[in-house]
Design goal:
The chain is α/β, with parallel strands linked by helices. Helices cover 51% and strands 12% of the residues. It has helices spanning 89-102, 118-135, 150-162, 199-203, 206-212, 230-246, 254-273, 277-291, 298-309, 311-340, 343-354, 369-395, 399-412, 418-429, 433-445, 451-456, 467-475, and strands at residues 40-45, 53-57, 67-68, 74-82, 105-109, 138-148, 167-171, 187-193, 216-221.
Length: 477
């Protein structure tokens, strides 16, 4: 069996694996009426396991590329989405227009999230896949998984080890685990922002995926570590639809193929005119990967060869590689510094990453975009690293380590509500209730809205019933 080598074991985020089990098959329960089509359903309980729920969108229009089951009913392709925070409604809301346009049922798990044990993840996946296979009129040859960050790792691990699916769209993170023989091979479309701290990890998947026999493509977009905007994720919908035509699952649609090629060609022309040659070459490769086997790509291959031979392209690639090497060195320095350096050092150090890019604070020379992106990736990495260490220190009641790490966390990611929430826990433990409420107010102002977590936090039980607590509840969305 093939293996993705040790690269996939070196992931920054928490690795979540899934145990192996057999997926069910079928064309859905034709006797059960479907939920209303064309609208989002926020919370539906799994029929086989009512304790697990999901968000759902069923397109109101006839599927763009339809297939019929043995009973003559229309079968839909389906995408099952995993959010790292168990917010299934988020990807369903974000991509419902794509699901409508391309005729996909979209399912978002409300239970799968970072930090779960592999048995818990396996149970969630089993319940969801049973629901998909038995309740809805699904084309079992076109079941796909979608995930962001830790959810992308769950999607990939599920597809490799637990249930056979046709493809995975992974956003903002690669694969978890590694070292185990792969049970299933699938199509993989990776998406990562150029300001995402996992960009290098995603791009480094190219060689092991090729060696393991995955049909794949990994693309970037100008963004940070977040669910990609729909206009970016649409490429994933196009990719899996075109692959279904290549594999004979769908009839070849020449109009769809031509329109996809035109869209990619227009975007390529725009990147070239902006002198963004790295992105242009990447998009040229994307167009070749999308179209090869469906239409002629000889002109695209020639254009890619011309692009790659240009001295300015080679210069841009060389500079990016230098920046990526420097980024890894600086990342290791930041990891060591969290243990060794005081807050005065951190304040000065973080200002180096932020200061040059603030309005009116220029170094007096042109800043290369690659340097800007490197610094943003490093600050995003530092935010995540501080979150992991601060949460651990708070849980272990290592107060001094928690105080320092939370302070660095807030400096690195000032708009994030989590440092204030964690600081409120420390203050509540010391019975500094009003100070704790003040930190929670700041967290809410920054966007914290998880009432269930707030009311369930053990340290905040003594705050309940006070006027300040009641006022805080009222300000939350």
């Amino acid at each position: 069996m093939r293996c993705l080598l040790t690269l996939l074991a070196g992931c920054t985020l928490l690795i979540l694996a899934c145990s192996c089990s057999n997926g069910s098959s079928g064309q859905g329960n034709s006797t059960r009426s479907l939920p209303e089509q064309g609208v989002i359903h926020e919370k539906i309980a799994c029929t086989g396991d009512p304790g697990k729920t999901y968000a759902l969108f069923i397109p109101s229009t006839t599927a763009l590329h339809k297939r019929s089951g043995s009973n003559g009913n229309l079968l839909y392709p389906v995408i099952v989405a995993f959010d790292p925070h168990g917010d299934g409604l988020l990807p369903v809301t974000l991509y419902k227009n794509l699901a409508e346009k391309y005729g996909f049922i979209l399912v978002g798990s409300n239970d799968s999230k970072n930090g779960l044990q592999q048995e818990q993840v396996s149970d969630i996946v089993t319940a969801l896949m049973h629901e998909v296979h038995t309740v809805y009129p699904v084309d079992t040859n076109r079941i796909y998984l979608l995930g962001f960050s830790g959810g992308a790792r769950i999607a990939a691990m599920t597809a490799m080890y637990q249930v056979p699916v046709k493809g995975v769209i992974g956003c903002g993170a690669g694969f978890g685990g590694g070292g185990q023989p792969i049970r299933y091979i699938f199509d993989y479309f990776g998406i990562v922002g150029t300001a995402d701290f996992n960009m290098s990890e995603m791009q480094n998947l190219e060689e092991p995926l090729t060696n393991a026999g995955f049909r794949h493509f990994i693309t970037t977009f100008p963004g940070k570590h977040a669910w990609p905007p729909a206009v970016v994720t649409e490429d994933g919908f196009i990719w899996i639809s075109l692959n279904a035509m290549k594999d004979g699952i769908l009839a070849k649609d020449d109009v769809f193929i031509s329109e996809a090629g035109t869209v990619l060609g227009n975007r390529l022309a725009g990147l070239k005119s902006d002198d963004n040659l790295i992105a242009a070459a990447c998009l040229c490769r994307e167009k070749i990967a999308f179209m090869e086997g469906l239409s002629s790509v000889e002109k695209d291959k020639q254009e890619l060869q011309i692009l790659e031979s240009r001295p300015d392209y080679q210069s841009q690639v060389a500079y990016r590689n230098t920046v990526l090497k420097k980024e890894e060195e600086e990342k290791q320095e930041l990891i060591r510094a969290l243990q060794e350096k005081d807050l005065a050092w951190w304040k000065k150090e973080i200002s180096k990453y932020e200061g040059p890019y603030k309005a009116g604070n220029s170094r007096g020379r042109r800043i290369n975009p690659e340097d800007t992106l490197k610094d943003r990736r490093l600050m995003a990495f530092l935010s995540l690293f501080c979150y992991m260490n601060a949460s651990s220190a708070v849980a272990k009641q290592e107060e001094q380590a928690a105080i320092k790490t939370i302070a660095v966390y807030e400096m690195a990611d000032s708009s994030n509500a989590e440092p204030n929430y964690l600081r409120a826990i420390l203050l509540a433990r010391r019975s500094e209730n009003e100070a704790a409420i003040a930190q929670l107010r700041i967290a809410v102002k920054k966007g914290f809205a998880d009432k269930q977590r707030l009311t369930g936090q053990q340290e905040f039980q003594s705050l309940k019933g006070s006027p300040s607590w009641e006022d805080l509840q009222k300000t939350m969305k």
